[in-house]
Predict the structure.
Amino acid sequence: MKKVGKRLLGICIAGSMLFVVAACGNKEAPDRNLINSQDGEEKVVLLFGPMEKSNPDASNIARTAFDLTIGMAEEKLGLTVEYRTYTAENYEEKTYDDVTLDRVRSGMDDLYLLNPDTIQKLGEEGRLADLSSLDNVENLREVVKISNTVNGKLVAIPQEVVAYGLFVNQDMFDEYHLELPNTPEEFLECCRVFKENGIETPVGANRWWLENFVFAQAYADLYNGGHTEEEIAALNSGEAKFSEYMRPGFEFLQELIDKDYIDAEAAYTYEAIEGEGPDFKEQKTPIVMAYWGAANADTAYGKVDFNLQVIGFPSSRGQMPVMSMSGYGVNAKAEHMKDTIDTLNVILSDEALQLYAETNRVISPSKNVEVECVNALKPLNDRVNEGVYVLGSNANLKMEQWGNVCLIVRNLLNGASVDECMAELDKLQEESLKN
């Protein structure tokens, strides 16, 4: 797989637990307030992640949802979770993924916050512990188990499920008497009407998230047609080609480009939300794409002057949420294995996940935990609760999805043909089969 830069790390999985919990610190400073066990030895779990622990004396509002659940584990188990922090400066601009790969392979820590491609790679190498025996695994949504299972082992579990959708200005749709689109054909018709009525760019796009259109169309049947395991096996064996699944999605994007429904040149340079966000907020463009949390954040789309609705991407099966999954992984040779597993049992309990979900207003990985979402998110939330979704990241697939497809879509924006993009997909699949 081509190396994904540090900006991709922060943007492609934006909204996931790795990158919203807190700002990065500047050192690996252990918490010295370690708790002694009855035999006099300090009980500690070594966590590597992109954040530092916040001030334990801060109010709950000031502390992150992640810290609050870690605090629950520390109090219940009589141990300390020692945060070891990533910063690009400390690692000479290595990406977070590169650093976690090195640290897991070297056995430097117990617990890690991992991105999807890293979960996949380390799972295939057998370097992550099987978490299928954790106390609360039976409470997990199927999407969590599917996306983070490698070679039959559940190797990572998140504290939240990240859903991507289309953010639409309902007022602009109403003005032109348009129904919210369900299929690619309906979406194109909406864009045609907007364009003919003077909307210069109906779809605000950036260089990171257009692949969600591809995933929604490519995998609508795979994940919702009742033959998921068989189809994944065919892709992993090479019997089926990813390009066959994804060609319609790339052709759809090419049509959006050809008809000037998106500005390919601008999208290629735009960062997520920073680029297309201002035009959407100013009601110059009616459609953008973003992750669930953007509807809650005032700095994104949580405070707009129109009727915001968040729906799934168009597909043959209607509006389709696209899910991306990060998660906690445990080093298979963790020095403090028992304490690490005990810590996970606490922070992944329904009690802790309820606290996390209520604090961050996110979709919980537990099917027992529900949080009232803002009105704008209800259409997307309804589909998720119905079990209708596709995965943009799936450790079960030998070819990494999220980063690879993102880069190939960027090639399309930069002028590559659909056939050239399909050839690149075939090449990547062949390489994954060799590995």
Observations:
- The first helix runs from residue 6 to 12.
- The two ends are 11 Å apart (CA to CA).
- Residues 1-39, 58-62 have pLDDT under 50 and may be disordered.
- The chain is about 40% helix and 10% strand.
